[in-house]
Specification:
The complex is a heterodimer of chains A (115) and B (105). With 115 residues, chain A is mainly β. Chain A is globular. With 105 residues, chain B is mainly β. The chains are: A mainly beta (115), B mainly beta (105). Chains A and B meet through strand 5 and strand 10 of A and strand 5 of B.
Chain lengths: 115, 105
């Protein structure tokens, strides 16, 4: 049973470009969470999605960031017009049920570097 | 907003010594989960605590949930080099600040 798959593993973008990060949850999981982690820091919640629904996006910056989890295909975290401060590791996690009782299964993350 | 603080931020121990990290939330938690992240890796689920005052053990690891459900602790007995990593507590949305454990052989 494949785990949570994130790609790409590493992504380099120049300032002003767009970054698209993909996350395929574990089989049977319908809930996806995105987190950002700066070097030597903890994980900051960004957004929580179910299939075709954004449940909680309170941690997502209002501008340039968007997320989706379509009926078919992976969840996508999109960052438009990237800036150097967007450089971080972005982790996706999935769980089979609502947030309260299920452990999170994390992917290996995407390391975004903005030059 | 809700904050979850962990102390200490760093802990260096000699192999065989014990280690404890403390997690304190500014609000009451319905449950708390603990994760371990190895250097360069991703967080891995360790355990979930739900009941007030709950204590759970996993081999050398002991987890405790406070009576008021606002704090928790993780204690490792006789640390090994494989215990190296950062330990986070979380309610799944808000992650604690983490405690980085370094174990010297």
């Amino acid at each position: 049973n494949a785990g949570v798959m994130q790609n790409p593993r590493h992504l380099v973008r120049r300032r002003g470009q767009e970054a698209r990060l993909r996350c395929s949850p574990m089989k049977g999981h319908s809930h996806v969470y995105w987190y950002r982690q700066l070097p030597e820091e903890g994980l900051k919640f960004m957004v929580y999605l179910q299939k075709e629904n954004i449940i909680d996006e309170s941690g997502m910056p209002k501008e340039r960031f968007s997320a989706e989890f379509p009926k078919e295909g992976p969840s996508i975290l999109r960052i438009q017009q990237v800036v150097r401060g967007d450089s971080a590791a972005y982790f996706c996690a999935s769980s089979p049920r609502d947030r309260s009782n299920s452990p999170l299964h994390f992917g290996n993350g995407t390391r975004l570097t903005v030059t | 907003g809700q904050q979850v603080m962990q102390i200490p931020q760093y802990q260096h121990v000699q192999e065989g010594e014990d280690f404890t990290t403390y997690c304190n939330s500014s609000t009451t938690l319905s449950n708390i989960q603990w994760y371990k992240q190895r250097p360069g890796g991703h967080p891995v689920f360790l355990i979930q605590l739900v009941k007030s005052g709950e204590v759970k053990k996993q081999k050398r690891l002991t987890f405790q949930f406070g009576e008021a459900k606002k704090n928790s602790s993780l204690h490792i007995t006789a640390t090994q080099t494989t215990d190296v990593g950062t330990y986070f507590c979380t309610d799944k949305l808000i992650f604690g600040t983490g405690t980085r454990l370094q174990v010297f052989p």
